[in-house]
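User: My notes are a mess, but here's the protein and zinc ion's SMILES. Can you give me a structure?
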Amino acid sequence: MGKKKDDTVWPVTKDDAEWRNQLTPKQYHVTREAGTERAFSGPNWDAKTPGTYHCICCNEPLFVSDTKYDSGTGWPSFFQPITPEAVAERADNSLFMKRTEVVCSNCGAHLGHVFPDGPPPTGQRYCMNGTAMRLEPTTPEPADTQAEN
Ligand SMILES: [Zn+2]
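Assistant: No problem, the inputs look usable. Here's the predicted complex:
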């Protein structure tokens, strides 16, 4: 079949030892070995906290809580990334299934997969590993807090 080797060069590139040093074993497995956390086991699968989800590897903002919805799958699910450029998608034919893998466009971290069975307005379901992302809660503007008190 002659599958072309993936020779993508990401803006953030570290060698294997650096990633292992920076990440927990679980984070390394998911993001660098394209692992999948067990459903209902990862961080933030049911989080409703307003905020931004950042790549655990390079801190790039990837998704916002406004686009998160309860897909019932046990993984954090979004109907779109923060910007179309934030993530890269590529064909994944492992496990004898045709799926589309979603990776961080900044460092190539494996995030999860996207499926065409999501809600409006996009119809896309970005099924992510909570392990691959860090939720940074939105902090209210100090001025607003003072005005309310
Ligand atoms: Zn990244």
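The mean pLDDT is 91.
User: Great, I'll file this with my notes.
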